[in-house]
Design brief:
The protein has one domain. It is 43% helix and 21% strand. It is built from two helices and two strands; from the N terminus they run αββα. The longest helix is centred in the C-terminal third of the chain and has 15 residues. This is IS1380 family transposase.
């Protein structure tokens, strides 16, 4: 069906909203702050990929 197609990209607004509502915790260690995410969420992998691409582009 033409209206039901696989999503090829995600909007930044959707990604930010997902990160805000994800289960996680902030961990402070060695003068750094880490954001620990649960691996059960499918968005954890997506967020990690976005972060790695952003880090490479810097």
């Amino acid at each position: 069906h033409p209206l039901h197609h696989k999503v090829k990209r995600r909007r930044i607004k959707t990604i930010i909203q997902t990160v805000i509502t994800m289960a996680g915790r902030l961990v402070r260690r060695s003068r750094q702050i880490w954001m620990k995410l649960t691996r059960r969420s499918g968005y954890s992998i997506l967020l990690l990929n976005v972060y790695q691409k952003w880090k490479e582009a810097r």
